[in-house]
């Protein structure tokens, strides 16, 4: 619970939205339904450290869609015992992925880095619970 609170307080939730809601759908089960993907599904400038020089449509090399974090805790078991995170799998741990956040997320990444080690561990434990 503390990790989830810190996740929100630090600002991670500004892009990794906990809850989204669908709009109208003629399929009743899909209409106005809340779900918890931990994403806003939007493009964000992640800074020069993640710029791979490739463009996709109008997105520049440093712009990436916020990936859903749901299922993050299953990543290690589903990836052969290793974790491959970020858009290209270059981060080998949740902590490393957080450290790679730059651009629009630089101030949030800095807040995470300034947290006491125990608070950082709480956030990571929360993320592993998703």
Automatic annotation (TrEMBL):
Domain Cytochrome c: 1-130
Matching PROSITE patterns: CYTC
GO MF annotation: an example: cytochrome-c peroxidase activity
Coiled coil regions in record: none
Any single Pfam family the record assigns to this protein: DHOR
Keywords: Heme, Iron, Metal-binding
Protein name: Cytochrome c domain-containing protein
